[in-house]
Specification:
Layout (H helix, E strand, L loop, with lengths): L6 E4 L3 H11 L4 E7 L6 E8 L2 E7 L11 E6 L2 H13 L3 E2 L4 E3 L5 E6 H6 L5 H12 L6 H10 L1
């Protein structure tokens, strides 16, 4: 067991959420579930998404997610960004801005190409600002456009 594990409180969509997450991201699995009654819905679960362990619970309508907590997905390239973005949108997620997308269960995800972090790690503040400014105009991050902004700065 990890020393620190994110614990997600869902309204009543825990089962659907963990099925979607574990089907969407590699290195994912549902480990343990507790059901409300023998054939009832899942009330709590331990699961892994992309190698990260989580605990989840159906806590009722009292609990909801906000953008104050999001899941960051490190994508190797634009193809991987596009793949996850498409899967999330197909499942009913709502794109917001700057690579953020909110899934139908209310949880926000950041779908970020690794190249973005490389570009904003540059020692030239003008290049970093140009990349950040470009990113702020995007919904889904676009590596080619980020690189264009970097190169033109």
């Amino acid at each position: 067991m990890n020393k620190v594990t994110p614990f997600l409180m869902f309204n009543d969509q825990l089962e659907a959420a963990i099925e979607f997450y574990t089907a969407t991201f590699p290195d994912s699995e549902i480990r343990n579930v507790a059901r409300a009654g023998e054939d009832g819905p899942i009330s709590s679960a331990e699961f892994v998404v992309g190698g990260q362990r989580f605990m989840g619970y159906n806590g009722g309508s009292y609990f909801s997610f906000s953008e104050g907590f999001s899941l960051y997905v490190d994508c190797a390239d634009q193809d991987e960004v596009d793949e996850y973005w498409e899967k999330l949108v197909k499942a009913g997620a709502e794109p917001t801005a700057c690579g953020w997308i909110k899934n139908p269960f209310g949880l926000s995800w950041q779908i970020v190409p690794r190249r973005f972090n490389e570009l904003i790690s540059d020692s030239d503040p003008k290049k970093v600002k140009a990349v950040m400014d470009a990113m702020m105009t995007m919904v889904k991050l676009d590596v080619a456009e980020l690189e264009r902004a970097y190169n033109e700065a």
